[in-house]
Amino acid sequence: MHKYFAKPLFLGKKIEFLPECHSTNDELQLRLGTGSVEEGFVIHTDNQVKGKGQRGSTWLSEPGQNILFSILLSPSNLLASHTHFLNLMAGLAVCNALDEVLDQKTELKWPNDVYVSNRKIAGILVETILSGNQVDKAIVGIGINLNQSHFPLPVATSVKMETGKHIIRDDLLLAVLAAIEEQYLILKSGGFDQLKLDYYKIMRWRGELHEFKDKEGVFEGEIIGIEDFGRLMVKRSDRLERYDVKEIQFLH
Ligand code: BTN
Fold it and tell me: pLDDT per residue over 14-64, tens digit each?
């Protein structure tokens, strides 16, 4: 059966394909420095030799098998203190697009690791350029494990491994761009509460007791949600604590 994939209307009007680059985020950053780049411009590639992950990590991906791209957004009227909503909206978009091709529902491990059946299937790296207290530009970099069948880490999975199906990369790329467009319009119209509520519906470990680690050591706690500045709120036996992304590890 032929699967129908949604197509974006205004994002991704211009898509540039590079057989190889350092990192699509860095490539987009370079373009910004050398001339005007329109909102919605996309760079995607077969291979990144220096793919960047969150918290200074490296994003590894077998050449030609997966989706690796970055998109430029210029959200007018987004306060720098609301930057985390870009993470939420991008995470929701990737989940919505993947839910169309997977048999199981995806989840978002805060801030925006995309999980399915307890394994990571996609990652998102949002980098912003601020102007005063506003977000001027955002580079949203997305890596989706698509047709790769083996990973060095057991925590990783792909669409192929989950479904046995080989998906045409460009079809899913357009579907993800359409999903970003949908969520981005919500963000642009100030629908922050809606984004947060939708995020909570698929937020991994929310409302459950799990083990975490912070600078004081291992503890048991329950994720309550995300506070106004984007920090994770975790209820511990004796207090409610707020964490930035580098300050907490999820154990089990
Ligand atoms: C993470 O989960 O650690 C975030 C991974 C983000 C990877 C994507 S791949 C395309 C874009 N270019 C990069 O260098 N990183 C992002």
Answer: 999 999 999 999 999 999 999 889 999 999 999 999 999 998 899 999 999
Task: Provide the CB-side half-sphere exposure for 64 (13 A, CA).
Answer: 0
In what helix (H) or strand (E) does residue 31 lie, and over which residues does it extend?
helix 24-34
**Protein residue with least CA distance to atom 15, ligand 1:** 52
* DSSP codes of every residue in 91-130: HHHHHHHHHTT-SS--EEETTTEEEETTEEEEEEEEEEEE
**DSSP three-state, residue 80:** helix
State the pLDDT at residue 76.
87
Q: Is the CB of 51 under 6 A from ligand 1?
A: yes
Residues of the chain with pLDDT under 50: 1-2
Report whether 124 contacts 91 (CB < 8 A): yes
pTM over 0.85: yes
Distance from residue 238's CA to the centre of ligand 1 (Å): 36
pLDDT value of residue 65:
96
User: Closest residue (by CA) to atom 16 of ligand 1?
Assistant: 141
For 75, phi then psi, to 5°, come to -75, 110
Phi-psi category of residue 117: left, alpha or beta, with phi > 0 → left and psi -120 to 50 → alpha: left
Ligand 1 nearest-atom number relative to CA 45? 10
> Beta 209-214 vs 217-226: how paired, if at all?
antiparallel
